[in-house]
TrEMBL record, chains A, B:
Domain HTH tetR-type: 12-72
Originating species: Mucilaginibacter gynuensis
Coiled coil (residue ranges): none
Keywords from the UniProt entry: DNA-binding, Transcription, Transcription regulation
Organism superkingdom: Bacteria
Lineage of the organism: Bacteria, Pseudomonadati, Bacteroidota, Sphingobacteriia, Sphingobacteriales
Protein name (record): TetR/AcrR family transcriptional regulator
Keyword Transcription applies: yes
SUPFAM superfamilies noted in UniProt: Homeodomain-like, Tetracyclin repressor-like, C-terminal domain
Length: 203, 203
DNA sequence: TGATTTTACTGAACACTGTTCAGTATATTT
DNA sequence: AAATATACTGAACAGTGTTCAGTAAAATCA
């Protein structure tokens, strides 16, 4: 009797359909301007249907966020390829910032907007855990071979993540306008600043 | 004929009334949950009235943001008192982070939410300019006496601001949950990380 | 002072938001 | 074939930012 199995599969497919429609809307119109009705229109279902698969908008956002972290992780694995630990760290920083600049809406969902964090308590490690581990391992290797000034792993993780996130998020939220950097120079400036920073804290 | 003058004054007073009601709502219920109707209720006027003084919500937010930057600047002048340049930088970092932790709603308005930046182009330097100058002068002094590793002023400003903002904003948006730091240890951790960072980039 | 114009304000209305739920139509089981 | 279970709808609710015709008070003019 394969009916319940098929139903289960169909349910998953429907969730995937909703999720991908949500992602499409986010990339086209921005997370902030995408409503449940927009997503429903996209897949030609009624708004109510979405609530049969996700208990609220936050849960849907959390699910899309999860995929977004998957993409960042993939970017890490593709670009952080060096055998030299400090060089790996540089590649990691460059990848993070480039990802943020090239995927502003995903970055918003992952690190800036409040919404997807209103999810049930204990599952907070699920999203982003892989990416954090990647950074953590990279830094642990640096510390192990003594090429990092800071020797506490958690402190190092926090510091480098904060710097990278600060650069990306200040830019995404237009706060760097106050510094009057030319628009087209911004990416290079951010990358150079990150590179510079990593050089400062390694030896 | 003092009538136009009085009218002008009354107009200013009304703007001030609206602004302070907005601030009150922001601090009590959060920026995100405060509507024009809430603010109108607070001052016992109709919603439409607010639009006689501010062309839209963004303009009001921008005005409140301006005051918030004033408060940060005041915090700088009160806490950054040392004569030693590097020590001043440490005081600045500590003040920034403490301000962010103690005034989360104001910090949101100043550095995170999109809204108040949708204001007419060229006046972007107005809000936050003073605070940026404060940091800029502090770092210029460090560079002048050769106590900073980085020698480019703009690069230094960007790096230290990004780090501080990264720490505060990741925390305000609950993204540090992934690191499983105990809630009560967060402020100390952030301050220690900032202090540590400044030590790394100075000599 | 009395009539007229200007100003300040109201609150209903518009188009939107997330979310719920009675009703319906289809698919599955008995 | 009848009964049940599932999937979906779309109107409705309470909220949002914003507009604007209508009103009442204040300032100006005669």
């Amino acid at each position: 009797m394969g009916v319940p199995e098929r139903k289960e599969r169909e349910k998953m497919e429907m969730k995937e359909l909703i999720k991908s429609a949500a992602l499409k809307c986010f990339l086209e119109d921005g997370v902030a301007k995408t409503s449940i009705r927009n997503i429903a229109d996209e897949i030609e279902y009624s708004p109510g249907t979405i609530y049969l698969y996700y208990k609220d908008k936050d849960e849907l956002l959390y699910d899309v966020q999860s995929d977004a972290f998957g993409k960042l992780w993939q970017a890490f694995t593709e670009n952080v390829t060096s055998n030299n630990t400090v060089e790996r760290l540089q590649q990691l920083g460059k990848t993070y910032i480039t990802f943020g600049l090239q995927n502003p809406e995903l970055y918003d969902l992952m690190f800036i907007i409040r919404a997807p964090m209103n999810v049930d308590e204990e599952i907070h490690k699920a999203n982003g855990g892989n990416c954090l581990d990647f950074l953590s391992e990279c830094l642990a290797a640096c510390i192990a071979e003594g090429s990092l000034i800071v020797t506490d792993l958690n402190a190092a993780v926090l510091q480098i993540w904060a710097t990278a996130h600060g650069l990306v998020s200040l830019n995404l939220r237009c706060r760097l306008k106050v510094m009057q950097t030319k628009e087209e120079e911004v990416p290079d400036t951010l990358l150079a600043t990150m590179e510079n920073y990593i050089r400062s804290v390694t030896k």
